Amino acid sequence: MTSSAILLPCQSSFSLKETLIGGQCFRWKPHLDGFCGISGSRGAYLRQKDDCVAVEGDASPDADRYWRHYLDLDVDYDSIRESALALEPRLREAAARGGGIHILNQQPWEALCSFVISQNNNISRIRSLVEKLCSLCGEAVDGFGCAFPEPAAVAELSEERLAALGFGYRAGYVMEAARSVVSGRFDVDFLKNSPIAEARAALQAIRGVGPKVADCVLLYGLHRLDAFPRDVWIKRALEGEFRGTALEDFPFAGVAQQYIFEYIRTKRQPE
DNA sequence: GTCCAGGATCGGA
DNA sequence: TCCGATCATGGA
C-alpha cells in the first residue's frame, strides 16, 4: 500500500462499511481504519474520511473511474432514501441504521456464484467458502490475495473437489453456475434489459438458482435496484413490522430491502 | 444434542 | 399450487 491515495468525493450520508460488509459482497475485510479487498482483477485498500473515500493500492490510470462506479458514488442515494421514506414511513428506523448503504456494481458472475454458495448458509461461512474458491483457482493480485476466479476456471473443477472443500450439496450448483456462464446461457445483456419477471425466470432456469438467489444476482450483479431478495430475515420483517408494505414494488425496492436487512441484523448490537 | 443460516429441489397432496 | 422433507456444513 505504497501508492498515493486517490480521493473520491461522496455524499456525507454514505457508509463504506455498511456497503462493503453488509452482505452484498463477501470479499472485503477490515484492515487498519478501512477495508481491503478485490473487485474483478483489482485490489484496493479503501477508507472513508467524511465526504471522501480514499483508494490505495490500485495504480491503474482509470482507478478513479473504476472505484467510483464500483461504489456507485455517482448515484444520489439521499433522494432514493427520501422517496423510500415517503412511501413507507415505517422505514424510518431502518434508514437511520442502514441508510448509508450503496448497492455495489459487482461482476455479474461473481454475484451469481457467491449467492449460489449463500443458500441456506450463514455469512461467515459464505465468506470462508468464497475465499477457498478464490485461493483454489483465482489469479493472484499483488498484495491482496486472489481474485475471484474466472467462470471457465471453476467449470474445470470437479464437484467432488468442491464438496471436499466444504461446499456440501452446493458443489454441483456452483459447477452448474460456472457452466451456464461459459456456455453463454447466462446472458448479462438480457438480464440487464428485460422486464424483471423475464430476467427472474431466465435466472431460475439455472439449476440451484431459485427466487431469492435470482433477485440477489439481479440486484448485486446487474444493479437492478427494482429487485427484492427475500431471505429469512426479510421474510420475518414482511410478516412483522413491515406487514403490508408497498416497498416490494418500489422502483428502488432493493435499496430499501438492504436498509431493512442491515437494520434487523444489527439492531441488537451497540453498533 | 439441537437449532440456524442472505434456499432450492423434489414428491405428494 | 402448496407443503413438508431433504439436502452438507459449522458455529452458537
Describe this structure in words.
Helices cover 48% and strands 11% of the residues. By secondary structure, the chain is an alpha+beta fold. The strands form 2 sheets. Strands 1-5-4-3-2 form a 5-stranded antiparallel β-sheet. A hairpin with a 2-residue loop joins β3 (34-39) and β4. α4 (92-98) packs across α14 (253-266), α5 runs antiparallel to α9 (171-182) and α8 (159-167) packs across α9 (171-182). The two termini are 28 Å apart. The structure holds a DNA duplex (13 and 12 nucleotides).
Brief descriptors of the model:
alpha+beta, five-stranded antiparallel sheet, two-stranded antiparallel sheet, 14 helices, DNA-binding
Summarize the model shown.
This protein has 271 residues and is an alpha+beta fold.
Could you give the topology of this structure?
Layout: E1 6-9, H1 16-21, E2 29-31, E3 34-39, E4 42-49, E5 52-56, H2 63-70, H3 77-87, H4 92-98, H5 108-117, H6 123-137, E6 140-141, E7 145-146, H7 151-155, H8 159-167, H9 171-182, H10 188-193, H11 196-204, H12 211-221, H13 232-239, H14 253-266
Antiparallel strand pairs: 1-5, 2-3, 3-4, 4-5, 6-7
The structure holds a DNA duplex (13 and 12 nucleotides).
